[in-house]
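Model the whole thing, not chain by chain.
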Amino acid sequence: MSGDPGISLRGVCKTYRGRGSDVVALKDMNLDCPPGSFTALIGPSGCGKSTAMRIALGLEDHDAGEVRIAGQAPATATASGITGVAFQDAALLPWRTVARNVALPLEVLGRDPARYGHEIAKLIELVGLKGYETALPGQLSGGMRQRVSIARSLITSPEVLFMDEPFGALDQIRRRQMNVELQRIWQETKSTALLVTHGIDEAVFLADYVVVMHANPGRVVEVIEIPFPRPRNDELYSSPEFHALTDRIARVLHGQ
Amino acid sequence: MASRHPFWKSPALRNLLILLAVWEAVGQLKLVAGGALPPVSAILVRFWADRADYPGHVMATVWASVLGFVIGNVAAVGAGVLFVLFPRLQRLARGVNIAVFALPPIAVAPILVLTLQGSAPRVVLAALGVYFVTMTATVVGLSQYDTRSADVVRAYGGGNWLVMKLVRLRGAIPDILGGLRIAAPNAVLGAILAEFGGGGRWGLGTYLLGSLGRGEPARLWGIGLMATLIAGLSYAVFALISSRVLGSTRSVTLNTALPPGDGDANAPLALKIALTAGAAALPFVLWWAFIRVTGVPEMIAKTPWGVVDYLFLADASANARAKLMAALAQTLPITALGMVAGLGFAFLLAICSRMIPGFIRAFMPIALVTQTMPLVALTPLLVLMLGRGLSVTLWITISVTFFPAFVLLVQGIQRVPQSVLDLPRAYGASAWKELRMVSIPAALPYLFAATRLTVPRALLGVMIAEWLATGTGLGNLLNQSRGYLDYGMIWTVASVSVCLSVGFYYAVLAVERRTLTRLGMQVVE
């Protein structure tokens, strides 16, 4: 499967060793994101969904199992620039302008940001922030900052896109708008996407597959396929099929 | 403390004008020690008469301070970055860092004058004065970075160096500027103290020493105020720069994740022991290397072994020991007494600050000004007012411990959230009960920190007073030994005073750790 820009976790285990007590964050976790698919990882707080993503990105070590991103080890994949990432908090550098924040991954990868001027401008326009290129993060609203971080996650034209509750800090209305935009952007880039989220309706709206996790120990309990055609729009939220699926996921989440 | 009034209508200006008016009246009426506190007008008249003297002295002091400030801070920031990148290096350098922090500049000044040429002693002492403050600020600033931004860099395969370059260095700038602000007056103090130590025709320290015996209070006040002005301006410049920079650097949201702590807890025991032993030995190795590199003859420059030899093995060692013990017996009790009084007073006043906030608001600016006032310029003025007896030593010690402790304690108490204070009151607790349950425990860590941090200052204050005024104790022994060319004693007093400072620092730290751990509190750095 080398060359496929997919994500695969096989039998991944992770234990945090504290003083006196160990916490099993992940036990024998398996996850497959086929190339070009959109996968949502959903579960209660502390079920290890963020940990799984951080392990896939090479931000944390795992104790056992195998992790492959596009057939490569995480460190190799991230350093070659085929991944993109957006966190729950925009995590923008407060002293950099919007354009220079978007260019940050390029600098980390040792590429010359000056040669990407066109891409940077295009992405800022794509997330609807044209005219804010030279603004500092402190001058933007929460939603705008989050869109900057989405633009930043796309600047390397990633084949694999990781998102950890990227709209967690936004209100419901804003979040739905951003979800429509995210779907549009993702369809344009044709990347493999992994979204970590708390929101059932967000997961169903965006994903091809919803992966449900349980805590203590963190593990995958069910994978649910979402069959709705794309592009999906706001009307989907009020359809009976949509509600049937969200109800089903809620039951799985509650262990029924 | 942003003021809502324009400056010319602000309470600060009103208080300043009242202070000046009272000062003028007290001076005109010769109320303090028969005219030791001259009226403001007399100081200005004298200043005008001496105006030809000032430029040369001011230039010499400022030049040495600036040079030392630059050298010391470059070393401090460089060391801070290295310490953060290689934590084990910081362990190894801990002994040196504490020694630099604890050394009373007045004890080192004669040594530097003996071993270095020209204006080098002033520059070195100014650099030593800034190193610890800036190094600590750099380490704190680099350690408290935004972990979320670091994650973004790491998620693209960035290593430690890229995180340092893109996230941590720029993020530490407000802290480093804060350090520079506090360090700037220290550089001025260092330069003036080295001028005291001897050599050179120019410099405010030389001018002050030369004017001391002539009984001209107005001139001494002029020099003291000039030194304060220079130190205060250097503080203000960095305060202005940091307020400009801070605007764009503050994180827009609050990060709840703390950066990972000391990851060395699992290191093998042998390595820990080796690092601790190395940290204790390194200051002495550097001392020895310093003497080898400068190539000063053995007669003048004593190595660590030379001091041991002088104090315990040589023919006259019994005599030397007796002199040292006699001096310590005079210096230590007064230092301890002054510190206890200063810290106790600061603690009481800070605790009460919750009840009388208006008083604190009026008092804080005065406390902050005394922070920038070079101790060495203050001492002769206190001598003028209080005479040459023991009381002057005591007052100097109290004042040098009181103000920093007070500022630290008030800042600490102000961090207690209002809701925590409201809780006992909501259950009908009296003001005293509220103090006992919340404010006093909350202030305790800061009292310990203040004790640790003011030890070297207290020792410095006592030694300056002894040198200039009372003619007793370690300060006097140092001054006398310079006169008798007793080089062994100069080195002995210097090393003993540093060891005392460091020893006391660690003693307080040990009690502090034990007490605070029992109370489940954190040690304040």
